[in-house]
Predict the structure.
Amino acid sequence: MPIPRHHTISVLAGVLLCALVATPAAGHAQQNGKKEYVFKGKVERVDEKAKRLTVTNENIPGWMTAMTMAYGVDKDTVLKQVKAGDQITATVYDGDFTLHNVKVVPPEKKK
């Protein structure tokens, strides 16, 4: 016996809702089982309202090529500590475009 169309739509809506509700919790988890990468880049813009940093990152083999992109941050305090032009390092994880443990790299001294 075929399943009525409205039941199929209800099930799909429920699955999507569960995925949306679970996503923030998964983002705050300790990234169990996800591959970790070292992220390096130059901050182009700090957007405190959107809670994002626009960064031109270096190539990260196995994760992402060099590009300029907006990233979320794991701690709002980062948005007050970094400024455009800062070189930063951070940790990123597979499937997550949030910068974790962001640190400003001191500029190299000229010889």
